[in-house]
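retry 2 of 3: previous attempt timed out while embedding adenosine-5'-diphosphate. Reduced batch size to 1 and resubmitted. Inputs unchanged:
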Amino acid sequence: MSDVTTVRPEVTRAALEAAPPGRLKDDPILITFGMLKTFGGIRAVDIDHLEIERGTITAIIGPNGAGKTTLFNLLTGFDRPDRGAWRLDGRRLDGRAPHRVARLGMVRTFQLTKSLSRLTVLENMAVGAQTQRGERLERALLRWLWRGEEARVEARARELLDRFGIAHMADEQAGTLSGGQRKLLEMARALMAEPHLVMLDEPTAGVNPALTESLLEHMRALNARGVTVVFVEHNMDVVMDISDWVVVMAQGRILTEGPPEQVVANEEVIDAYLGRARDPAGGGEAGEANDV
Amino acid sequence: MEFDVILGNAARAGLGPQAAIFALAAIGLNLHFGYAGLLNFGQVGFMMLGAYGTAITVATWGGSLWLGIPLGLGLCVAFALALGVPTLRLRSDYFAITTIAAAEIMRLLIRSSPATELTGGPFGLQTIANSFYDLNFLPDGRFGWGTFTYSSNQLWVMLVAWILVCLCSALVLGLIRSPWGRVVRAIREDEDAVRSLGKNTVAYKLQALAIGGVIAGLAGVIDALQQSGVGSENFEPQVTFFVWAALIMGGLATTVGPVVGAMLFWFLREGVESFIREFSGLGWLPDGLAGFLDGAEGAISIALMGIGLIALMALWPQGVFGRRRDLHLGT
Ligand SMILES: Nc1ncnc2c1ncn2[C@@H]1O[C@H](COP(=O)(O)OP(=O)(O)O)[C@@H](O)[C@H]1O
Ligand SMILES: [Mg+2]
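retry 2 succeeded.
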């Protein structure tokens, strides 16, 4: 926990403990301080303190516009905050370009799936592999320098594709995949980078129930191998099912956080987020809970 | 009407040095746009730097041609960095606008009177290619038959130009088939996805821009050797658009597309021009129209090709060698 005071010396442990959201974790892999991002007048993200426990599955929930995607963009370097500091495994990430963040072991996926359409599925996977010698211009034509490495990358890619059930599509162009298959591909591709922490923005959105189940299985399996998972999710059944910890966001702020059972029982959360769906009078809107 | 004359002229143009020069420029542009997705509308700027770098070294400074050529190509790398470093981080349309403006500003500077001492200004520079033709090992005399008769030096420059076309095609093919090329093609599809996977996309785009720019610079060098001189009027913005037309006709993101497209471009351009000349020569046209056509064959040929290109985009958008299927893969 020495990180706390080195990143923001003025933040004392006592002060942190006094502020309930942003609870301290035993072994945080990611620590965020004083993160603010405004768009015009909107405080899209305004988080005093957030920690992610290593080796857990953390769900981030909250209505649309709560700032979940913006938080992902900030943490992974795709957007710059007005202020804020954050650390991955003790290394400062603020001000780092997205590719540097990824190289340090935090890899994200996107709410709107980004498949590389006119590359094959296998090529999509290969782009995910890190520190390839053949990716350097000066070695690109010296095939003998990277032929072996290329074979290893391909073998690993095929194995992952097999696990994700899309091995039969390996040589097809990614643009021909269905929406659900693209979600699978994007997640598998992120794993090619061998991240310590994956940030999945709505991995199950628009995915049919059978595929959702398989995606969740992959997240569990990944987690079992020691990878920390953070994901944005609207479906409360999924959240209750898979996550160890839930962070609730609303209007850019962290409303509360805790174990799933505790969070769903929280009055504030019910009011702000789950209320309408749980309210018998508003039963007709239950389906909307997923979209709120 | 003499169709064999028309066809002969067209074929001569399709095989001539201009076609090879366009092929080189299109190979570079294909790396830029076809593979890396960079909207470069200033390809003529790279050609101009290759040509002028060579010509200035030889004609103005009295240096060796073999120093001038690498200098010209070095200028292309510098131009790529100057264009790319400030704009490749921004949205792609900023880059596109910068390229067209930068190439034209450079041309205006080159032909301005204060630059005359260096660049020859509006008069250009001459007699720069002697050491190139000294290397010609072909026997003296004329070769070929009919329309396809070439002098030894013409044949020499064509030989070198088409060899360079083959080498550059092979170079781009090799690069694109490597893991480096995979990243470049991935950037064309979705740059953010590639950044999220730990690749420094700006560096890759700069590299692709510089390599494609140097290949276009080679096109400019050949142009300067072929005419044994340079003139700023050869590097007007429309050259870039003709190269685009050639590339699109041949097919984007293919190896032979830019080469065949450039040959086709010159074949059609010269063929249509020849046709109009022959046609008005028949005396079937009223005097007014014949007078209008006289001397305007080049412009009309280009206009017709523009219309043809629009039709091509509508009916056959993948070009000669492109894959139609690719056009339907939404991102
Ligand atoms: N690029 C942007 N420009 C302006 N406003 C934005 C931008 N991105 C997000 N916002 C705003 O920030 C808020 C948070 O958005 P977002 O992070 O996408 O929410 P979530 O992912 O939780 O649905 C919303 O009010 C949204 O309109
Ligand atoms: Mg979102």
